[in-house]
Amino acid sequence: MSDLGVTVGVDEASLDALVELYERDGVLEPAAVVAEAASPTSPLHSHFVWDNSVAADRYRRIQAGRLISSPQLRIRIEPERTISVPRFTRVAESGGYVSTDEAITQHREEVLQRLLRDLSALRRRYQHLLDFDAALRQAAEESAA
Question: Rounded to whole angstroms, what are the CA distances from 131 to 6, 124, 126?
């Protein structure tokens, strides 16, 4: 692995464990990380909920959110053009999901603000790849000169 900068966001022991897994397997897969973290002596152990009743409830909530988000409305907007939109949309005001038509008509400002936040977050989420590519290209150009 290249060492181009300082790693933040995780303690050094956890990073070392992740790097060790990566170097051993050539890829980091969630199942392998969980398996490694299962040992109470692993530096990764504290990053997980090990009380199965609590973990199961949290996971079921994630599954419920995915289930609620699954139904799609197919709407023909032109003779040759159909769009799909979620049947339900999450709104903060209710703390849950409402029908998408209600979200657009009664919670329009909130939905549009979330859309803008999500687009900005998406851009930030992938900007690092462009920045990293630029840094690698610059380093290659400087070493070639």
Answer: 15, 11, 9
